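ugh ok so i messed up the first submission bc i forgot one of the chains. this is the corrected input, ALL of the components this time, i swear. 379 residues overall. if the numbers dont match what u have on ur side tell me asap before i send this to the collaborators (the ones from the other lab, u know who)
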Amino acid sequence: MLRYWTAGESHGKALIALVDGFPAGVTIDTDAIDVELRRRQGGYGRGGRQRIETDKVDIRTGIWKGATLGSPIALEVINRDYKLERLDDLSRPRPGHGDLTGAMKYLGSIRGVLERASARETAVRVAAGALAKQLLAEFDITVFGYVAELGGEVIEPVEGTLEELRAIRDKSEIYGLNLDRDAAIKELIDKTGKEGDTLGGVLEVRVEGVPFGLGTHAQWDTKLDGRLAQAVMAVQAIKGVEIGLGFEAARRPGSQVHDPIHYDKSRRKGPTLGYERPTNNAGGIEAGMTNGQPIVIRAAKKPISTLAKPLASVNIETKESEEASYERSDVCAVSAASVIIEAVVAFEVARALIDKFGGDSLMEMQARYKMFLEMAAEK
Ligand SMILES: Cc1cc2nc3c(=O)[nH]c(=O)nc-3n(C[C@H](O)[C@H](O)[C@H](O)COP(=O)(O)O)c2cc1C
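and heres the new structure output, hopefully the right one now
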């Protein structure tokens, strides 16, 4: 089973992800992981910290001569502005953070909680996801995340192939799919920042080339929709997850929700096995299993909690009303969140792929994948 844990504090010495169950024989491109780390640090509206850090991954274990060994892989990202030992505690908890709840729960400091709750931790989730993407690429599965809405403004995607859309996203400072909208959205971020406020948004991730049958219908904790929802919801500041039509499905009659099934024999050797759908309202998953259509998943990110114009709080030493503390902070991290959601989705899809096709070696997985497609095409 593929899984990972992370360790590390926001201003501690390093962040670490321990990836367990990754198959042997996958050639790893470390630079490609660094590209994802840089994308996570980018996007318009980020604060000073992103200019201090230039994240790079150090793969500490599990690789020999550039390829995975099948043993645990330790990924490390050093914090260049390590200063945890010099930092003081806070006494005025920030609404929207774990400051108050964590300090009470652990009978401890606010600092002790915020250092771990911080989204800085997602640097190594992105590294783990980038590793997973390299496995998925061996099966021609691509994972593509972008910003669909920011601060209530919908960014209507332009038409194009996956490659064209990727080029647009990578050119956009917002990580959206419509460059004509960038200027107005940047203006909105600037204006909001000047007012001491922050913005959220909606991220979308599409996974293309997914074969039939990842995930299961049989048990609640192996249903792929459930696993994806947990992975996405567990990212800092994510407050909602939708698959396919999501909440919109609840508002329509069944005839306008469910995706009709057609058969095209000429495509039976591909991931769809020839079973084509004119729509993809299910977002590629039915009964917890992939149905050969792209997986489409959306996430709602709340605005950054730390406000330059702070909200009301209470000094937990004196119990007097005071403004919340202010720590250097982003105005908007929606673009970065799209990179993180892409990574955690990639990891879950890779896990489901390994569950279906075995995870000892890439070579065995590919042979079993090919055999499955052949058997299913003949069924
Ligand atoms: C990419 C990213 C960057 C973030 N940057 C900040 C930040 O600079 N300041 C802040 O107060 N919160 C930031 N957050 C949000 C907090 O980490 C998060 O809201 C907080 O830990 C509370 O967790 P919850 O929102 O999941 O309940 C960021 C979140 C993400 C995904």
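quick check: The CA atoms of residues 226 and 288 lie 7 Å apart. that seems consistent at least. The longest helix spans residues 334-357.
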